[in-house]
Amino acid sequence: MRTTLPRENGNTPAQATRCAELHWCHISELAYFHRESTAMMNLTRRQCLIVAAAGAASNFLPASPSQLSFAREPIERRGDPRFRPAIAAYSLRKYFSTFRGKPQQPAADGPAIDLFGFIDYCASLGCDAELTGYFLPPEADDAYLLRLRQHAFLAGTVISGSAIGNDFTVPAGEQLDAQVAETQSWIKRSAVLGAPHLRIFAGTAKQLGDSEEKLTAIIDAVSRCAETAAEHGVFLGIENHGGISAEQLLAIVERVDSDWVGINLDTGNFISEDPYADIRLSAPYAVNVQLKPNMRRPDGTVYPADFDQIAQILRETNYQGFVALEYEHEAPYERIPPLLLQMRTAFLG
């Protein structure tokens, strides 16, 4: 006598099994839809627009990593705008005995100086100090950096940051890896020094051009350095150096997925017909500001910067942080004190 298995809800065992499979498949699909919907709800409106644009551009085919990268939002700051005056050591570059690791003869039209003396100079003017890495002697080790840090603290001067002259537009491979490694080394040195910010370069406008490949390589290099920066608590500020436009700069910064990367906003480096518009575009991402007393048009014309207008832009974008005067012309010992007073009047009232 053949035994017949009971039916479930009128279905045969095979049909019941298939129903169960379909049931769990449906549940899995709902769970997946819930996860994806939740993720989309957590995106900002701007990020959703970028995802939609990437999908439309590719007809919903899989996009490249650069297409799927989300544009970062501007830095969110709490409270009112605040400015801390500082001076960039580069302003006195002719008077150091070391420049980019090589000895140089200090200029004879003013006192020779080293970074300890520069800290004292800033203290005498009642402002903070940006210690450009170009002026460290080749033998400078961690003990030397700690002595600088101690010296600044005892002088009541904050080290606002440091700066290096890297180049991420070199060919990919060994050359680019070496630039990344050197930048990562300087991030660690900045942490020892107590510098909260490190100015870096991406390259010049000419080097970058309109190459998507070069742009992607730069973004990758900055992203690798950003991991080290996050580990050591040092912000990276990409400078608008070498004629890079605000749009080129934002194309890099917005595609680096790190809260430790922003813009080192050099107010004199936008060579355009309306540099104040470029400053306004860049300011929401600024982690440091270098204030120059002059601006330059595309035809090479140099004209005085409007400190009041720059200060107003930074107030409107709620910038909070260091504003380092960077002077690049003759007679810095004579010109820096009145420029610092002009800067204080514009920024601090």
Overview of this structure, please?
- The chain has 349 residues and is of the alpha/beta class.
- It contains 12 helices and 12 strands.
- The longest helix is centred in the first third of the chain and has 30 residues.
- It is globular.
- The N terminus is likely disordered.
Specify the helix fraction band.
40-55%
CATH second-level architecture of the largest domain: Alpha-Beta Barrel
CATH class of the largest domain: Alpha Beta
CATH superfamily of the largest domain: Divalent-metal-dependent TIM barrel enzymes
- The main sheet orders its strands as 1-4-5-6-7-8-9-12
User: What is the distance, rounded to the nearest whole angstrom, between the alpha carbons of the first and last residues?
Assistant: 103 Å
Average per-residue pLDDT, rounded, comes to: 85
How many strand elements?
Answer: 12
CATH topology of the largest domain: TIM Barrel
* Number of structural units classed as domains: 2
Task: Name the shape in a single word.
Answer: globular
In angstroms, what is the radius of gyration? Answer: 27 Å
Point out poorly predicted stretches. Answer: 1-70
Number of helices: 12
Major beta-sheet overview: 8 strands, parallel, barrel
